[in-house]
Amino acid sequence: MSGKFIVLTGGVGGAKLVLGLSQLVPPKQLTAIVNTGDDFEHLGLAISPDIDTLLYTLSGKANAEQGWGRAAESWAFMTALRELGGEDWFQLGDGDLALHVLRTMRLRAGDSLSKICADFARAWEIGAAILPMSDERVATIVTTDEGDLPFQHYFVARRCEPKVRAVRFEGAATAKAALGAVDAILHPEVEAILIAPSNPYLSVDPILAVPEIRSALERATAPVVAVSPIVGGKAVKGPTAKLMAELGIEISPASVAAHYEGLIDAMLVDIRDGQVALGIKTRSADTLMVTLEDRVRVAAEALALARDLRG
Amino acid sequence: MSGKFIVLTGGVGGAKLVLGLSQLVPPKQLTAIVNTGDDFEHLGLAISPDIDTLLYTLSGKANAEQGWGRAAESWAFMTALRELGGEDWFQLGDGDLALHVLRTMRLRAGDSLSKICADFARAWEIGAAILPMSDERVATIVTTDEGDLPFQHYFVARRCEPKVRAVRFEGAATAKAALGAVDAILHPEVEAILIAPSNPYLSVDPILAVPEIRSALERATAPVVAVSPIVGGKAVKGPTAKLMAELGIEISPASVAAHYEGLIDAMLVDIRDGQVALGIKTRSADTLMVTLEDRVRVAAEALALARDLRG
Q1: Is B148 helix (H, G, I), strand (E, B) or coil?
Q2: Distance between CA A90 and CA A100 in Å, rounded?
Q3: How far apart are CA B118 and CA A32, in angstroms?
Q4: Where in chain A are the domains?
Q5: How is domain A4-310 classified at the architecture level of CATH?
Q6: Residue A56 CB partners (closer than 8 Å, separation 6+)
Q7: How far apart are CA B95 and CA B74, in angstroms?
Q8: Chain-centroid distance, C-alpha A22
């Protein structure tokens, strides 16, 4: 394949699709535009959970069972932190700290998140471009029955237990897309723009809330294909289904397609969800990604759907 | 003993004496005033090497063979940092990072170094007070034949190889002593003020360069006793002897006594250096501190000398 491929993605689930794609497409032709709404400062360190999941996954360093962090991680820092009375609800592995310490230092020195991210990817010989959605601060805030919670407090500290009333993305409306993101989406050689099966409301929406990115997607000539995060009427992982229920949204591919209406041209739907009439082109496949083979298969199905659209 | 005891100290060698003292004197009656001229910012983290050596030594967490850092330390952070191209000349252990990350966060939030230090000591159940000499920034700068080097660059990165021409303490002249340091020195119940056998020019001088501390020592009614860092015409460890030679100073207890003239009332001299006439009271003892027993013995000798002075 000679064209270019774009994926809009959150962390764990999305990274699986990007890893699958990276087996099918020369990595240099692949750009992941990554959610940074989950980014936060913790213990004075700048943490970018979704970007780091991409970095670990694409460099072969990810802890596959856990879904986040590094394989063979050690935890001496957390043990010492706990002894000293430091906040310990967010796990920071010993090796993982290197990313956070270097990123924090460079951000303070004035480097952009996208430049830092590109340098990390280069150091780990990742061929794909990993772009934060924006170099400006966007914060996903979850309004719950316990009040407003920054994303990581909702997701990690409170384990998605509070009932969600609404989600907003502070700073998104005025945030510029990271340098290169809009050009990547609008590049004439783009063959497919995929929306990963990440949580639409928590992981993809922050990306779409950056006006330049939404506008670029609306103008893109390449087909935009979403991979449904619903598998057999349920979400594979994480709080997607619980959150949809709390927001009064039916847990189905149709709801997700409606959510992305005007932006996507087609949706890859899990075969367990049967034939669905979404008003856009669909394709059915087993979209559950457990093994690497699964990830490659789902990526191939999504690319095939984009190819169909290009006719 | 019901009185109070003060030690002015640098890192490794001084910490040995303080540990010895803590076996002889109820820890609550012991205050260590610690050099912070070696403190520096590295990878965006605030590092306080001498304070940390005291914290590790007095809490039983020190790596005794190495002389710095924690026992049973792991190095996953450094490995990952190196992979990412981060500066790796200064070793930061995984557990050790907890001190640096928490300290950096709290300093940025406006807490004083002495408050942070007190909280760390409390968390590790250290009874002695560990006071930084100042809460303000003092930086030891070594003028060498390669130009001016911040202390850690001279000491760690350049392994004390450049020839030293002079040493200065930036910020010391205007730095206030840390809250409590002057009161500790001048407290009427102080029975002895010891100067640890740390490097006089690199580790003790920065403390003495803080005007309020020097002035308090000059006014102190308690006897001030230095433990000679010279053992048999050599320095036990570190760059003391090399540095004295480069500065044209004879490597002898007499030189150190002359250096502290006007501040000390007596000196504990190593027995290998024979009987020396220093113009102040002296006492001879085996001052080499290898075992814990040695440390207790040297501390006891220094206290005995102070007791003699009190008459």
Answers
A1: strand
A2: 13
A3: 46
A4: 4-310
A5: 3-Layer(aba) Sandwich (3.40)
A6: A62, A63, A69, A70
A7: 7
A8: 15
Give which of A80, A83, A89 is closest to B123, Cα–Cα: A83
Q: pTM to 2 decimals?
A: 0.94
Q: Which of A278, A273, A294 is nearest to A231 (CA)?
A: A273
Q: What is the pLDDT of residues A6-53, one digit of tens each?
A: 999 998 889 999 999 999 999 999 999 999 999 999 999 999 999 999
**Which residues of A fall below an 8 Å CB-CB distance to B?**
43-45, 70, 73-74, 76-77, 79-81, 83-86, 93-99, 101-102, 104-105, 108, 119-120, 123-124
Q: What is the DSSP string of A148-165?
A: EEEHHIIIIISTT-SPEE
Structure tokens at A134: 């924006």
**What span, in angstroms and rounded, lies between the C-alpha atoms of A251 and A10?**
19
Q: Hey, are the CB atoms on A101 and B79 less than 8 Å from each other? A: no
Taking only the tens place, the pLDDT of each residue in A252-277 is 999 999 999 999 999 999 999 987 78
Q: So what's the ipTM on this one?
A: 0.92
Nearest to A194 by CA among A1, A13, A11, A17: A17
Amino acid identity for residue B97 in this structure: L
Question: What is the CATH topology of the domain spanning B4-42+128-310?
Answer: Rossmann fold (3.40.50)
Splitting chain B (311 residues) into consecutive groups of 10 residues, what average pLDDT does each group show? 90 93 96 98 97 96 82 95 96 97 98 98 97 98 96 93 96 97 97 97 97 97 96 81 93 95 96 86 94 96 96 78
Q: How far apart are CA B143 and CA B151, in angstroms?
A: 10
Q: Which amino acid is at B251?
A: I
